[in-house]
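Suppose you are handed a protein chain with no further information: no name, no annotation, nothing but its sequence. What can you learn? This example shows the usual starting point.
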Amino acid sequence: MAHPPAASNHLSEFYEKVAQSYESLSGGTTRAVAAMCISYLGPLPPDARVLDNACGPGMGGDEVLKVYPGASVDMVDTAQAMVDFVRCSARENERWKGRVNVALMDGTKLGFEAETFNASITNFGIFLFNTPAEGAKEIYRTLKRGGRAAITSWKFAGWADLLLREIMDGMFPEKEKFVMPVMEQWREKDTLVNCMADGGFSKQRIRVEEMETAMWFREKEFAQWREAMAETMRSMVGDRLDAEVKARLEEGLSMCWEDEDKRRRLFIKGQEGMAGVRMVAWMGIGTK
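A reasonable first move is to predict its three-dimensional structure. Written in structure tokens, the prediction is:
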């Protein structure tokens, strides 16, 4: 079976740069999906041990401890900046004290014994591994029999599928359309299912749920959001966009926002002065 592609180096570099700001940049999407995943992993024993794999700033583990305050969570990531940030949070967050272990660790070479965890979550991390199938094998190996693992990917990413596409069509119609091979393949449900199956999960014991969410921001803070979003886009796309496009992303985002017809089409109207960019996640839940 052909293995799905891994992410380019520029994506790994992006996560090194944004450790402290990642949650705000994601506009609540990553945490919302993590929280939903937790609901599919249980019920867990009160003293469950859970892996937050490719943990980022630790949102998945934090959601575990909200639901299971007696659990312990191992948070691991390959980005040193993320690990440093999580270690700091572990010292300061009362909910985490005595419950969180943090380590710099490659998801394709987890340093845990077989059948260690009652549950495991890899939230938007599997496609960052050099070899996603090897990462899935490690998730399966370290999971206890009967335990469940949640692995997620993006089916639809509004920052690229709506905003960047609108910018390209409206301002740069002569240029080649933007495509990220990793994003294109991982938006397919079968890519996630096949990766989990390559890791050892029986397809009969994999369920895939779809979740619609949004990257939220305050309308009155659009200017600040535009700057942060443009910088995020530049980091995410790497060299797949030419310098002229990347230099004018702020202008393009303003075009999308200031035109009322475009705003209605491209953004979600939230409550209490919030606006959002549509995102849709795949959540693969596998039982060992």
